[in-house]
From TrEMBL:
Full protein name: Transporter substrate-binding domain-containing protein
Location, primary (coarse class): other
Signal peptide (from-to): 1-19
Keyword Plastid applies: no
Similarity comment text for this entry: Belongs to the bacterial solute-binding protein 3 family.
Length: 270
């Protein structure tokens, strides 16, 4: 009888040890990516950049949000999208408020000093937009002395400053483009070609000036020292591209593949 008790005790001890090891392994797995919240992939977008990220019926939706949701699923994590104003979104990442930025942030060398970036998850062109009835502005040079609207801390801010000294800052491209249609508010807006064409489809009386000034490489940003998370996101993104899931999401929101672009003669923004 004593032997049975001893054996039972040893079995119970073994179970407890295995459970502890399993728990430790789970915690290590969760902490492998340095997540801000256990079991969740928390990623930020502005929430005011339709059709990339916006609120509908009280919930975040859009292209960026769906890309993040699919990446989280492939990493075995719960998707947890949050919003942060674009002008401080990079600072929020550095401060560990979230794990990643999936908010249409283009890669630049300057931003890479503060964050690690994945491969591009789409391409877009920086384009000048004016009111549909504006016949005065036909080239970038015509913007000298004109009031240009841009989103603060965006990649459009510095180019705008080279074209005019009169810059109006916004938190949302959509609001800037809306002001463009109101007489006396703005002369031009510099933003992504995708956003402008989407605005036209939604009834905005605007038009583009010439061709895109450059091609941007919106990428997913994580903390600079978190290469494990960056690599895991890259792997999930590549899997999405390879199996057609990316194509489905892109076609849903834009009726085209945002990665399908000829970069041979393009000037890439860096």
């Amino acid at each position: 009888m004593g032997n049975w008790k001893t054996l039972l005790f040893l079995l119970m001890a073994a179970v407890l040890v295995l459970a502890a090891c399993s728990e430790d392994k789970g915690e290590a797995s969760d902490n492998e990516y340095g997540l801000t919240e256990k079991g969740k992939f928390t990623y930020a977008a502005s929430g005011v950049y339709k059709p990339f990220s916006f609120e509908e019926n009280g919930e975040l939706t859009g292209f960026d949000i769906e890309i993040g949701t699919e990446i989280a699923k492939r990493m075995g994590l719960e998707a947890n999208p949050v919003t942060n104003p674009f002008e401080t979104i990079l600072q929020g990442l550095v401060a560990n408020k979230y794990d990643a930025i999936i908010g249409s942030m283009a890669y630049t060398k300057k931003r890479a000093e503060q964050a690690a970036f994945t491969q591009p998850y789409y391409y877009s062109g920086g384009m000048i937009w004016i009111a549909k009835d504006n016949d005065e502005i036909k080239t970038p040079e015509d913007l000298k002395g004109k009031k240009i609207g841009v989103v603060s801390q965006s990649t459009y801010e510095e180019p705008a400053k080279t074209l005019s000294d009169d810059i109006q800052y916004y938190a949302s491209d959509v609001v800037a483009l809306k002001d463009l249609t109101i007489e006396g508010r703005l002369d031009a807006v510099i933003t992504a070609d995708i956003v402008g064409f989407e605005a036209i489809e939604n009834g905005f009386a605007i038009k583009e000036v010439g061709n895109p000034l450059w091609v941007e490489q919106p990428s997913i940003a994580v903390k600079k020292d978190n290469e494990k998370l960056r690599d895991a996101i890259d792997q999930a993104l590549q899997e999405m591209i390879d199996d057609g899931t990316y194509e489905e999401i892109s076609q849903k929101w834009f009726k085209r593949n945002l990665l399908d672009i000829d970069l041979e003669d393009a000037e890439l923004l860096e």
